[in-house]
Design brief:
This protein is an alpha/beta fold. It has 17 helices and 14 strands.
């Protein structure tokens, strides 16, 4: 590996991407109108990443992000994702690679992104048994999906994907993740799509926006209305089935999460191209950018973090001072698409910032609630909102003061202490949480739990947070 030892280079970079997107092939059997990879797949699938280079690329990435023995790292997720093109067109390569990575790096999470047209029960079983997360791209029901997603011969794509999902059966569908992408033409159907996805029995739903669209004022107004409708649905109709222990979940699937920060890194992933080059973002891979200018290493030579730092620095210089550029639309991908098209990247980033502003104003609070739900659901022994505690006070409890836990493992004990108050006789309760040593979000997560639980129990619960000194 060039650029010094991983630890030294990582310290200089401040944050190292924890995900590797492997573009196995530029072959695809669909031609979706909004596809970011359209230019990438127009060649008809002439390139496929050789197995040797694929595994060497994973080796280089794994050497960089491997967990350090004895290091405190409770929340880090290191992931390898297979995409393209359509990875199931190279089934033998995909199957063998997944198995080899699982044997050699069992701590790496693996994900396959597929359009679903080739997803047979046998292939799904193979991947799921290997612990692979399967994300199926589907934009909604027939009319919504087929507005943009069509097969290479021009036929609509919904029927083939829907038939494959039905063949998987209810148990397998519950293990799948569905991902929808919305454009100005389909954004009005966001809530309709969530309702439809729930009828399929898929528990995990990902929602995203067309990465490269510059939304007009009229389109932004329609998007705002659609997001407000989704918020109302999630808080009203969907709330009973969500949260810790609920039967469905949704995420906003954007390349850079809303809470990402350019002080760390503009992108959370490396990209490995079919030619075996590493790039700092998807756009440089799918646009066939000059590797001599933009590649940050190769499967053969390893990752060059010093060069990655220089690429990131160029992006940061251009986006510094721009409002809300790092949010629901990936700034680094939008930046390089504009640069490669010969356009002003600042204008593209500002347009993305306007989308982020609308999103945050309508759904920012809901995103935070979703994050807290996930924190609670992952905590060992926490339980769900419906459980009854083992112990409760016989005498009426009116007020309790707790220090929020300092680790995920202690969250269950804090919940039990809160339950002593919530389940005690009497309608009016007050819980004060002090966040002296809380790990990220624990105090707010516990406060959310207490407020929801108190409401379900029919009481009047006041929850307040105190900041530690």
């Amino acid at each position: 590996m060039t650029g010094g030892k991983p630890s030294d280079a990582a310290r200089r970079l401040r944050a190292v991407p924890s995900s590797l997107d492997i573009y196995m092939t530029d072959a695809c059997n669909m031609r979706c109108s909004y596809c970011a990879s359209a230019r990438f797949i127009e060649g008809g699938g002439a390139r496929t990443l050789p197995p040797r280079l694929l595994l060497r690329g994973v080796d280089a990435f794994a050497a960089l992000v491997a967990p350090r023995r004895g290091a405190a790292d409770p929340s880090a997720v290191r992931e390898v994702s297979f995409t393209g093109g359509e990875p199931l067109l190279r089934w033998d390569l995909l199957r063998d690679s997944v198995r080899a990575i699982k044997r050699k790096y069992p701590w790496l999470k693996q994900t396959v992104f597929t359009n679903g047209t080739l997803l047979t029960p046998e292939k799904a079983d193979t991947l799921l048994r290997a612990g692979v997360r399967i994300v199926v791209s589907l934009d909604g029901g027939l009319a919504v999906n087929d507005r943009h997603r069509r097969l290479a011969d021009g036929r609509p794509g919904f029927a083939a994907v829907a038939a494959n999902l039905r063949r998987l059966g209810a148990a397998r569908r519950a293990e799948l993740h569905l991902m929808a992408t919305f454009t100005p033409a389909t954004a009005g159907a966001i809530t309709e799509t969530v309702r439809f996805f729930r009828t399929l029995g898929c528990r995990d739903i990902h929602l995203g926006l067309d990465l490269y669209e510059d939304w007009s004022p009229a389109a932004l107004a329609s998007l705002r209305a659609a997001l407000a409708e989704l918020r109302a649905y999630c808080l009203r109709d969907g709330a009973a089935a969500r949260g810790p222990g609920g039967d469905w979940d949704f995420n906003f699937y954007f390349k850079d999460r809303v809470a990402a920060c350019l002080d760390l890194t503009p992108s959370n992933s490396f990209t490995l191209s079919p030619d075996g080059f590493f790039y700092p973002c998807d756009e440089l891979c799918i646009s066939a950018a000059d590797p001599a200018k933009y590649a940050v290493g190769s499967a053969e030579s390893g990752l060059d973090l010093d060069r990655l730092g220089r690429v990131y620095a160029a992006v940061e210089r251009r986006v510094k001072g721009l409002d809300l550029v790092n949010g629901v639309l990936s700034p680094i991908d939008r930046y390089f698409r504009a640069v490669l098209d010969g356009r002003d990247p600042s204008a593209s980033l500002r347009a993305g910032g306007r989308v982020t502003r609308v999103f945050m104003e309508e759904l920012g609070g809901l995103v935070e609630v979703e994050r807290l739900f996930k924190l609670l659901a992952r905590a060992p022994g926490f339980g769900d909102l419906m459980h009854r505690p083992r112990h409760a006070l016989r005498a009426g409890g009116r007020r309790s003061r707790l220090i929020a836990p300092a680790s995920p493992g202690a969250l269950a004990a804090s919940r039990a202490a809160a339950d002593l108050l919530l389940y005690s006789p009497g309608k009016r309760k007050e819980l004060v949480l002090r966040a002296e040593r809380s790990f990220g979000g624990a105090a707010r997560g516990l406060a959310l739990y207490a407020a929801l639980k108190g409401a379900r129990l029919g009481g009047r619960t006041r929850v307040s947070l105190e900041a530690g000194r």
